[in-house]
């Protein structure tokens, strides 16, 4: 009986620690340490895959499969700066990249304005 109780308690503790490991106050981690880039200015005014007009001054992003309207928190792993963006387009076109951020979202979290890519953590907000 003691062994069974120990196994039950151990299993509950293990499950509780696993549930908390990928979450924080903002939501669950979707991906960690992935590469993102940003849209060039030439895309301003063009239609996105969601039908919205693209603007580099809005906080938006392109992702290959997340639903349009999904809000995500993007955190630069180098400096811990974060921005919340809304998915409104499909992309990025370059393999190995997880997101294309609008320029304003990218510039909000970078320390080096001359870099075209960042390593980030992505959390689902809703």
From TrEMBL:
Positions of transmembrane segments: none
The protein's name: Probable endolytic peptidoglycan transglycosylase RlpA
UniProt organism field: Flavobacterium magnum
Protein's membrane topology: Lipid-anchor
Its EC number(s): 4.2.2.-
Molecular functions (GO terms): lytic endotransglycosylase activity
Family the entry assigns: Belongs to the RlpA family.
Domain RlpA-like protein double-psi beta-barrel as annotated: residue spans: 35-121
Species classification: Bacteria, Pseudomonadati, Bacteroidota, Flavobacteriia, Flavobacteriales
UniProt subcellular location: Cell membrane
